[in-house]
Recover the amino acids of this structure.
């Protein structure tokens, strides 16, 4: 959900501390939420729709 801020997502998940959210996210995904978002967006940009 690139239209949602990382802070908003953390709040939805009931994190009261951004530091805790970043630390837990990095432990689970191996990268920060910012790095993950950039990676996902770049992968979407490289996807080419086949001709129909």
């Amino acid at each position: 959900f690139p239209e949602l801020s990382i802070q908003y997502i953390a709040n939805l998940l009931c994190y009261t501390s951004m530091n805790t959210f970043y630390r837990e996210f990095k432990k689970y995904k191996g990268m920060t939420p910012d790095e993950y978002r950039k990676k996902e967006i770049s992968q979407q940009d490289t996807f080419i729709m086949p001709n129909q």
Summary: The CA atoms of residues 21 and 27 lie 10 Å apart. The mean pLDDT is 87. The radius of gyration is 14 Å. Residues 33-46 form the longest helix (14 residues).
